[in-house]
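---------- Forwarded message ----------

FYI, see the Zinc ribbon domain-containing protein record below. Original note from H. follows.
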Amino acid sequence: MLPVCPCVACGEPLPVAAGATVVACGSCGTSLHGRPAARRLVDPDWAALPPKATGRYADDTPEAIVVPDAMVPFRVERATARRLLREAARRRWFAPRAFRRVDESESFRAAYLPHWVWGAWTRSRYRAARGDFYWSRAGRAGARGSRVRGVRWRPAAGSVDLVFADVAIPATVRVEARMLADLMRDWTLGDAVPFDASLLEGCWVQRYDLEPEVGLELAKARMAAGIEREVRSRVGGDAQHVPVIETAFSGLGYRLVLLPVWLASYPHRGGRRMVAVHGETGRVVCGRPWSGPKLGAAFAFAAAVASVILYSVL
């Protein structure tokens, strides 16, 4: 039997085929990411981690999955979230009518989005080259030529010790990556409390789509980018060439944290688009929908005004 999860737009059951990457809701037509096939990474750091407790708590799966370690409670109540959403929507004059009434959408719901939060100590050894710019004249001796920039390279090597805490990796693919990244800017992981199933009442609790070992791969990539930035800073110069960075991890650990958000959707061009209200700060996160008729009317009005002005001048 195929797993079933609700459509994030209309809430209707959405079958997800094994290995599917994109599926479409049969009720509203919204295109959604499917749950990727589970895969195990050959990673000694992952193999050394102890297993976590499992249980049944998510709305979209009956199976036992990793139980969250912590959650960030809602600070923005339902009525406040609706008001903030209504105010933000009505400030957008050129938005379609459906967007300006999104606070009345039946899809409006409180949701907890799963995130893998990683931490580690790293020691990285690097071999690199530092480049310093210099300028010289091109052309024959004694003749005035254009200035040409060159680079003097010299070897550099060393080690970097860094501590990474709270590297949060979204574990859902059913919310747009751009929206998740925008929401992440305001979440305060320091305000997380131990997981309490009673706080989930009345909320849509989503199962994680990305397995923790996949989250480790993404977290290591995020850490690697931070390590490379630190290496380049230490190498210095005008340019750096860093062919080798060898990193060892220690004290590696992770938590599954549920983060709060209010979600709603509205019809747009034959599909549905999502809007979010941050569960801690109340900041509204959405795209920039435009109404074709409103834009056309504004363009026609501007063209008419320009024509009148031009006629009066001539």
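H. also flagged this: The two ends are 75 Å apart (CA to CA).
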